Amino acid sequence: MTQIKRALLLGAGGKLGTMFRAAWENAPPPGFELVSIFRDPVTPEGGVRWQPGDGPLQVGPVHAVIALWGVTPGQRADLSDNGILAIEAQTLAHQLNAERVLHCSSAAIYKPSLHPLSEDIPGDPQNDYGRAKLEMEHAVADWYAAHPYGPKPCLMRIGNVAGADSLFATMRASPHVTLDRFADGQGPRRSYIAPQDFLHALVGLLRCPLDDAPFLVNMSAPKATSMQAIAEAAGCDIAWKEASENANALVELDTTRLQKIAPLPMSSADPDRLLETWRSRAETQ
């Protein structure tokens, strides 16, 4: 009989954590059990309330820690807290004898280019959020260098998660969307990933033999998606404005490394695929 592996989810009440839990509940990965950790005083049934400083977390054996907590732009918090939370996740995983920790980094650590961005490109963030995430990556690398016996970290450089980015927030609020138009007459293209495909990719990282688990991995569909195509597929009206010289026409992640671990089809970048979960949530609200 296969032993069930328990994964501890930090940040279960956040935007990405909530979407991840919904995807997990809709299609539970065989062989795994999810233990959701909330920092909010009120937790959903089955969840566990805990935050750093609360003392030992009593949850039993844990195979891996999924650290989806963090600080994003616009929140009333210090972006440098991303590094603090990452080290908290490593320390907690060490205390629980977990073998690995999956961390949320971001495509924002890269300088946008007209070519796909691979994990081998040195980080060159262009905004405070990207700089905070790169500092977080360095802090995790330093921690692991000082604790070579683990747990082993994996830094997931995540693209736009469908339903969690600014375009979807705009579409949720209004049927009218304004997009940048670039010199070629086109709008922005971004690397997206649907929540259900994010789950698939993350479970692939959980299943991956520890020796083969990457320290850095880009997380997105295998090709970029036009934001115009997403808005049109959602039935939105589009207004155009000329792109400023600081705007980026393309942010595309090279997913060669991810494709060897948890392959996603090219169709995972299709607008209808990216809208699938967003539409189903809208229908139930």
Automatic annotation (TrEMBL):
NAD-dependent epimerase/dehydratase domain location: 77-165
InterPro entries associated with the record: Epimerase_deHydtase (IPR001509), NAD(P)-bd_dom_sf (IPR036291)
A Pfam family of this chain: Epimerase
The protein, known as: NAD dependent epimerase/dehydratase family protein
Protein source organism: Primorskyibacter flagellatus
Upper lineage: Bacteria, Pseudomonadati, Pseudomonadota, Alphaproteobacteria, Rhodobacterales
